[in-house]
Description:
Low-confidence stretches: none
CATH superfamily of the domain at 91-187: Cytochrome c-like domain
Structural class: mainly alpha
Number of strands: 0
Largest sheet: none
Order of helices and strands: HHHHHHHH
CATH class of the domain at 91-187: Mainly Alpha
Strand content: under 5%
CATH topology of the domain at 91-187: Cytochrome Bc1 Complex, Chain D, domain 2
Oligomer: single chain
Number of helices: 8
Amino acid sequence: MKQLVKIILGLGLVISASSCFDKNSPNYQYMPNMYESVGYETYEGVDNGLFKDGTEALTPPENTVNREWLPYQFDNTLEGKELARLQASPLDSLQYEDNMVKGAELYAIYCAICHGVKGDGQGTLVKREKILGVPSYADAARNITVGSTYHTMYYGLNSMGSYASQMSSEKELWQVAEYVIKLKGDLSK
């Protein structure tokens, strides 16, 4: 009889313990912040004493420019591009080799995929027919200059978008523009 009572009590204890068990939430949390994280919404007020009313994305003050960037003097128009065609590179001619090395690196990263390593318009995407109509720098009708190349990279042209956001400074845009002119000279030889 005592044996039967022990078995019944043991079964009752196991049944009651298993009925409270939930696989989705553990019975005991050692580090509750790991189970239930505090999520913050963007620009939401946080009760930590710093930003009780929340924060907001502020626009820069008027007449300010990003570091390393000055406003471009030519508009994104055909007239602006023709004016830019006459513009010379502001880079130091004594550092020509350094500018060509950096320009070649950036060209290989951003431009060669479409325009080709040699500037012949036979990049990987053109060969795979993902992009069509990329002309060679040697085309006589192109009549590109360092200024027009900079203008095109700054604003984009036709299906080529702007590459100004990929470069960290105006200097890098000018380095690539000078390298494109070097490629044009190499192709016309």
